[in-house]
Amino acid sequence: MATTVLVFLLCLTTGAFTAVRGEDPYLYYTWNITYGTIAPLGVPQQVILINGQFPGPTINSTTNNNVIVNVFNNIDEPFLLTWSGIQHRKNSWQDGVLGTMCPIVPGTNYTYHFQVKDQIGTYMYYPSTDLHRAAGGFGGLNVHSRSVIPIPYTLPLENDDFYVLINDWYTKSHSELRKLLDSGRTLARPQGVLINGQSGKTDGKGKPLFTLKPGRTYKFRICNPGLRTSLNFRIQGHNMKLVEMEGSHVVQNVYESLDVHVGQCYSVLVKADQEPKDYYMVASSRFLKGEPLMATGLISYEGGKGPASPEIPKAPVGWAWSLNQFRTFRWNLTASAARPNPQGSYHYGEINITQTYKFVSSANKVDGKLRYAINGVSHVNPSTPPKFAEYYGITDEVFKYDVMSITPPSEKITKVIVDANIRNVTFHDFVEIIFENHENTIQSWKVDGYSFFAVAVEHGTWTPEKRKNYNLQDAVSRHTVQVFPKSWAAIMLTFDNAGMWNIRSELTERTYLGQQLYMSVYSPRRSLKEEYNLPDNSPLCGDVVDMPKPEPYNL
């Protein structure tokens, strides 16, 4: 029998170690999920910690690594983590959402096993269950390029690569916020903004978050794991060169500030070429009524003298500025991706569209309580995850496919159906999805299991004639897109990843109250070439608990 030699590299501070073997390397993490009390905005409150950290540890991986995360749930509620932007090829079982997984019940553990197959870039993870995201439990997830793949910029040194997590924050606990939503109210305005778990001050005092050496170039990975608020990020006295977003190298434009909408991630290069002293990083709210909320974080030049200037750089005003910034984002067609081929070799603009989906969001009252819907359907999670129901062959007992139409009602949505929202789609279809926002607030949409081409974001109502405005050459391949008030966004993708995949509003309140659906990308062949089996260690729930396991897929 063949033997495998493993070399273990242990990191005591993060609970992680690496196993090197004769296949793609394995990264092992052990995470303890607990409550803790901290005061990000000066008010002591309960938060969710991972290994005692807030925010949680950063996962540093490389293309094709196998990531093993053993999660021990030591809080008092069922819990799941989702790995935002990781495509989980053939493996929706690891996506960490209630449509494809049973939650980790208190006092137990579950070991996630996923591969960052053919991906590079800046991502994050966060809880997907019961508003836990409002309490923390989020962190960065970095996928480095393999050393044999060239990247279109000089790579900063390993210690010159920083994660910056910016998010809105409430001083109420996640359970209190959940009670608000369950009672039919909204979360309303947050109380503050955080940068890496801190609100910061503008008195020039405090410990720097990062220290820079004069003359060096640094990479800042900026992600917004917040609940509902778009944020503008800027660094006092420094420009930012955008090089990557959500897994794609981009045309390297220089920006004074970036709007980072909920669920989005960007990588920028910043050169330490200013007077050696302290400077502020600033994250401030966008599109909120009233005075903007703001957080600061200090960066300090090594050997520098002098505090940061009290003059905070101003944020842009209005959503038209943000829309115009979106239009400057372009895919870098000459760069290599995770594999040794140009990113632009996939000419999405030349593929015939198989199906068009038009999703119109709405806010409605059902039995006097607020619900959010797509095309008049507000999703609820069955006690049996729909993916389990498919695997065990009991879909008729758990949910009905296609309760929601692929186009909205012709008249304004006033009546909402509350039901499991699962669409049956054809494997390998190339589709166009329109997200249309008739409301007065900005929205952000996320597609699990895929990256898509964000070909247009425009004001008004979408019609087929608007296709003439699509960017069919170098739209960025990504996994989130914002939709401005009274506007629409168009994306294109191929449903080539078998499984069941969540499409959701990234605004947590809306997701919790039904603005999501699942796309069942089903392969009737039941072949391991197209989809993996249910993991042996997967917890069971609902109607499948006492059922015998089906015959496994085979080659």
Tell me what you see in this structure.
The protein has 555 residues and is mostly beta strands. It is built from 5 helices and 35 strands. The chain has helices spanning 174-182, 319-327, 386-392, 395-398, 508-512, and strands at 7-11, 16-20, 26-38, 45-50, 59-62, 66-73, 81-84, 109-115, 121-127, 139-144, 161-169, 192-195, 210-212, 217-223, 231-235, 240-245, 248-249, 254-255, 257-260, 265-271, 278-285, 294-301, 355-366, 369-374, 377-379, 417-419, 422-426, 430-437, 443-447, 452-459, 477-478, 480-483, 487-494, 499-505, 516-522. The protein is globular, with a radius of gyration of 23 Å.
Helical residues, percent = under 10%
The dominant shape is globular
Distance between the termini: 22 Å
Largest sheet: 7 strands, mixed
> Quick check: average pLDDT?
93
**Uncertain segments:** 1-14
Q: What share of the residues does DSSP label as strand, in percent?
A: 35-45%
